Amino acid sequence: FPPELIRNFCIVAHVDHGKSTLADRILEITGTIKPGSHDNQVLDRLEVERERGITVKAQTASLFYELDGKTYLLNLIDTPGHVDFNYEVARSLAACQGVVLLVDANQGVQAQTLATFYSAFEADKTIIPALNKIDLKHANPDAVAAQMKKALDIEPSEVLRISAKLGTGVPDLLRAIVHRIPPPVGNVNKPFRGLVFDSWFDKRRGVVTLVAVVDGQLKKEDKISFVSSDKVYEVKDIGLMRPDKVSAEKLYAGQVGYIMCGMKTTKEAQIGDTVSHKSSPVPPILPIRPAKQMHPEEKSKAKPAASDVVAAYIRQRRHPAWTSFFLSRRHVTNSHFGLSHFNFNVDGHNYHVLRTGCFPFLKYHCTKRPYEDLSWDNRLMRFLKILNLGLPMLAYGLAASFLIKHEERVFAGVYPEDQSQNESLRGSLDKLMLNDSSVSVTMEQSAALGQGWRLGFLGLLHMEVFLQRLEYEHGATCIATIPSVPYRAKFKFEKQIKEFRTEVLTVVNPQSIPEASVVSEFSEPWVMGTILTPSEYMGEILAICMERRAQQKNATFLDNTRVLMQFHMPLSEVIVDFFDILKSKTSGYASFDYEDAGYRPCTLVKQFPVAIQATVGGKIIAREDLKQLRKDVVAQKIYSHGGRDKGRAQKLLNRQKEGKARMRMVETFRYHTTVLLKF
Ligand code: GTP
């Protein structure tokens, strides 16, 4: 297939607006699957996806489509809609040239409609907007098209109208995909290079990597290597996902396909890595961003470059250390100013710039804070070290955009139910983390639960889904501790700064919070939350947010009935049950999305007693007080006895087991409490 006959696109939308259903219809219309031969949502293959009815993992399908006497190869990527899985969308965008943006014609523009539109816009992808579910009785396509004009500046005439369920308008959409989305810009005759954008562990066949081929061609038995390691592999099998694996003789520039090359360990296939022929190494590919031709008229109308505007703001600032400014949408195009964080140099000084607003409110906060303070930056530096290149600013920004999406927001300890299962749980975690590279891991020791790991997730749903996948796909059951957010502790004294080699320590485990006496300030992560809701719920939402220490920033009416509200609020208030409460108070009509908005001072107390109460109709029917933890005598004794006094150590270990049983009891108690409350 020459690249001009290839189209790579993702389907993006808010949760439940019909992405997976549209993918089904496209697979049927193109004859890839027979109508009615499969269950619904063919591409939602994971057990947890089927059980929960949501997509958590982007899936790829290659299909052939006949139009005007030509056969096109379409590579479709179905992406998740929930905010926790945005990194999947970001990664999928790197392998595509365009997106289909679906909006439910009944529900209208929602929080993730804005977020996904913004990601695609930021990555300079062609956007095909489509109103879905026009078959519904209460669908109001004209009103929703007007909302899209107001919120996203999309002309109503550009918006297609479809029913993914019935197939209405889907052939027109396929034609628009071929006509509007540009083909990938690859050269089949150049040395082979491909971007690894997904990988997973197949129980029977080992590690499978999914690659977007940028240039050249690849065939079986070729010798390949990856930029991030020196190892050489022989290609055992290559092919297309149709949507199951179908072997092919060759993969060409512009195609998206799988490679199996006998990788032994799951760590070898790094997502975001570049693969090339061993004999002709290539520089690494950063997320692909095809250069968009600017219309000559637009060029003459173009405003001053974003960098000039920002430099002017910084020079005019009133405060010596910081300033805030807004950038218009035009400024954000084609520059790193669409990113959440980046560094910017003015008159020889380095500034850190943080985007604090969501689209369409592109507000930036600029400080003189050195970028070493940022946790994500360590990763970026590591990444750049691998590349071993002094990359220009733009590439730096692109790398950041790729990595920022991987910032973990919620941490929890994960332990085997029994220490004898430690090794097998470690193996399962390794395998699953290959498929979900956004999870971070460090070892952790707990007196009650033994040896385990502290995992970092992108959100609470992400954590639940990850633990469920561990059980379903790898048969591993585990105990997870209550999730928490990463806090920062700023040390008062040189002694601790030297000991920890940092002035500001990021703490992800409550056990390792330093004593308050050595800390001058604790701080916690805040987020900018965007809520889209019918206007009659505004008061109710305001009350819920205020209870959670939120500060209202904006409220904009999209039309007579829908309003977009923005709040600054602590992440710890969001991760527990905010979303559930918001949904229940607004009968499911409000949608919510958030993005990081820096750290703010807070008060932290290490240990405190917790009272658990079960109430029915306002009457307390049961109560249990959990005392704060005492000094960890058990662990100390085990360590000090070493291996010498095995009998005594065993006794202590048995006591630990009892502790674990107690822990499960507490879990059970919590469960019953929930049941009682519901009752
Ligand atoms: P996530 O992957 O969880 O983000 O959801 P999704 O966007 O993939 O939505 P999905 O395809 O799972 O559809 C959600 C629900 O909407 C399902 O019950 C579909 O049957 C229904 N649905 C999708 N498209 C249409 C449509 O055109 N008309 C009607 N009436 N229902 C639709």
TrEMBL record:
GO CC list: mitochondrial inner membrane; mitochondrial matrix
GO molecular function, one term: GTPase activity
Residues that bind GTP: 13-20, 78-82, 132-135
Entry's EC annotation: 3.6.5.n1
GO biological process, one term: translation
Family (UniProt): Belongs to the TRAFAC class translation factor GTPase superfamily. Classic translation factor GTPase family. LepA subfamily. Belongs to the GTP-binding elongation factor family. LepA subfamily.
Function: Promotes mitochondrial protein synthesis. May act as a fidelity factor of the translation reaction, by catalyzing a one-codon backward translocation of tRNAs on improperly translocated ribosomes. Binds to mitochondrial ribosomes in a GTP-dependent manner.
Name of the protein described by the UniProt record: Translation factor GUF1 homolog, mitochondrial
